[in-house]
What we know:
The complex is a heterodimer of chains A (91) and B (90).
Chain A: E1 2-10, E2 24-29, E3 41-45, E4 54-59, E5 76-81, E6 88-90
Chain B: E1 2-10, E2 14-15, E3 24-30, E4 36-45, E5 54-58, H1 61-69, E6 79-83
Parallel strand pairs in B: 4-6
Antiparallel strand pairs in B: 1-3, 1-5, 3-4, 5-6
Amino acid sequence: MQLARVIGTVVATIKNESLQGRKLLIIQSLDKKLEPQGKPLVAVDAAGAGVGELVFWCRGKEASFPFKRDDTPTDCTIVGIVDSDDHVFCQ
Amino acid sequence: MILAKVVGNIVATQKNVRYENARVMLCEHITPEGELTGNTVLALDAVDAGVGDTVLIVQEGWSASTTATGKAGAAIDSAIVGVVDRIDLL
């Protein structure tokens, strides 16, 4: 999993049936100092996140598990919302 | 599996149900020599690791969710599965 900031939303009318009703968000991964790291990605939301929030996301096949019985095609899913920037404890 | 150092943790109230009662640790990749590489990863703690520990992280979902939550099939891609005592290199 990686920390990320939600920086935008994506609207797609035509998409795979099992993505219907799912929220697509643009996320920027962050390092331990909460500085951007790598390129932005499009993630499916499984935690109720919104723009501006600090979240963590899961990659790979496991990303589709929150939507299990649907076989949702995703390799990047937001699985949690960090309470605030101050709730990242790093030495 | 990868070698990493635990550098912190995060607190999240709203998260996927399978993450409940789990500790989400902030880890940084290290080289076999022990140097930090700057790349970070979040991993669920399955072995009571603490900040400063050198750890083994498995990055495969089936093993990660089984070790971290006791049941496979969760949206978990990384778990700490061991605390490293020592690394010997040629």
